[in-house]
Amino acid sequence: MMKILLCSHSPDNRFAGASRIYHLLAASLRERGHEVEVYHGEDAGITGKGLAAKLKTRFAMPRLVSALGRKLQPERFDVVMTSSGTGAPLYRHLRKNGGPRPLMINHIHGLGVYDDLANRSEEWIGNWPTSRMYKLFTGRAQKRWDWEGVVSADLTIVQNLRALDWVERRLPQGREAAYIPAAVHPELLKRSADVDESLRRDDMVVWFASWEARKGAAYVPRAFRKLREARPEMRLVVAGVSVPVDEILDQFDPRDRENVEVPGYIAFDKQVELFSRAAIILFPSVNEGFGLALIEAMAFGPAAVSSNVGFGADFIEDRGNGRIVQNSSIHMARAMIELVENPEERRRMAAKGRMLARSLTMERMTDAYEREMEKRLPA
């Protein structure tokens, strides 16, 4: 039995955000007999709205998470895990003190260096502006935190192979890295076991992500225009977004706006309904740490049109279990048109993609975490 401390920097949310993995992993490890304590951003004082909260997020997050870790007496635990370099000050302190200490894990949801590259490249090519605050502080800070997490932890866990490659090429002596893909939420996995295909709408495309540069949002309106030029009946649901509806609709051609629905944030029941009805899930991220929304949609049977990053790069075989396309409106539109005009081929790819997505279970993920922890602890 291991004693494990999990300290997330993200807001406490069992169904979304980075803390979701902490909740699920904690529950799964407890079921196996391990003693797990889990804390979130609020516990570290990363709360509130307005300028003060933003400054905490941009500048003080590692200090706050590490202060929480020290307060919880990390020496009591066999394993301590934090994310995205936010535990680096704590890990440096434990190394400096010497003596018995826990196994220190740095978990990376998505590498800041590739997020920064995605955001800046979208600005450079004229697709999406970035703020002055981001250019001066936010982008640089996350890249630094990621690096400090890698050099201070015993083990860095990543969720995609490109991140693994970046980390492995820079590992200091005595540090290690492991690749552990994320998992479909158990509730969604359970509810995706039996999908009524008679409810599937051949005219529905779903986007389920935040509406921002890194997610490839700039390409979607023009891709949808080209799709509707070939297939005027097609509809697009833009879900999972916090941007005002009018702000999103204004980016679409006036001819297409009546065919675009923007429900914003939707709870699990609505996600199940949406994914079960969609013919296509469009996921054209410029960079992606993993892509949970993509695999959870695929588990319900829509065919995937994804860019070559995250889960798409590591698992999807083009025209085998989905489509992999370039980040361009033309490539996205062509892939969607092909799927719409060849329904049998679309259903074949979707069925294979569904089997793949449903294989990414919490049991599989927990097995990997447990194995990586136990093999580095004294017998």
UniProtKB/TrEMBL annotation:
Keywords: Glycosyltransferase, Transferase
InterPro entries: Glyco_trans_1 (IPR001296), Glyco_trans_4-like_N (IPR028098)
CDD domains in alphabetical order: GT4_PimA-like
Name the record gives this protein: Glycosyl transferase family 1
PANTHER family, alphabetized: D-INOSITOL 3-PHOSPHATE GLYCOSYLTRANSFERASE, GLYCOSYLTRANSFERASE
Glycosyltransferase subfamily 4-like N-terminal domain ranges (all copies): 17-130
Keyword Glycosyltransferase tagged: yes
Domain named Glycosyl transferase family: residues: 205-354
A Pfam family it matches: Glyco_transf_4
GO molecular function, one term: glycosyltransferase activity
Origin superkingdom: Bacteria
